[in-house]
Design a protein that fits this description.
0% strand; globular; disordered C terminus
Length: 120
């Protein structure tokens, strides 16, 4: 999924793209919610401080590059088809990523909603 956003000091363009693609794979299909996701996530991170921003950056970077490490060059998370992104997220906790997605959603997606399983 491609989108445009202005520069930010908290989420890079790449991190915002990964977050938006994760939200899409987790079932948020409303274009308005996906477009507002980066702004809401940045607001959430501003209120939680530097350590939360670092955890978010780390989880998003790991999520983005995991397929490239296992499948080879050109296989980043954001380049995968939606079905493969869904499969990659299945069974992964990614608490910070889910909290960022939940920050923009009236019906937050969190580790306790059945979208993740323990031990990931």
């Amino acid at each position: 999924m491609e989108f445009e956003r202005q520069n930010s000091s908290i989420l890079s363009q790449r991190s915002a793209r990964t977050l938006t693609n994760a939200a899409d794979a987790l079932g948020i299909e409303d274009p308005a919610r996906l477009a507002a996701l980066a702004e809401a996530a940045e607001s959430w991170l501003r209120h939680r401080g530097v350590s939360a921003a670092r955890r978010a950056w780390f989880q998003l970077a790991c999520l983005e590059w995991r397929p490239a490490l296992t499948r080879g060059p050109g296989s980043s998370f954001s380049r995968l088809p939606r079905a493969e992104r869904i499969a990659l997220l299945e069974g992964r906790k990614l608490e910070v990523v889910r909290a960022l997605i939940g920050a923009s959603a009236p019906d937050p997606i969190s580790p306790g909603t059945g979208h993740s399983s323990p031990g990931a």
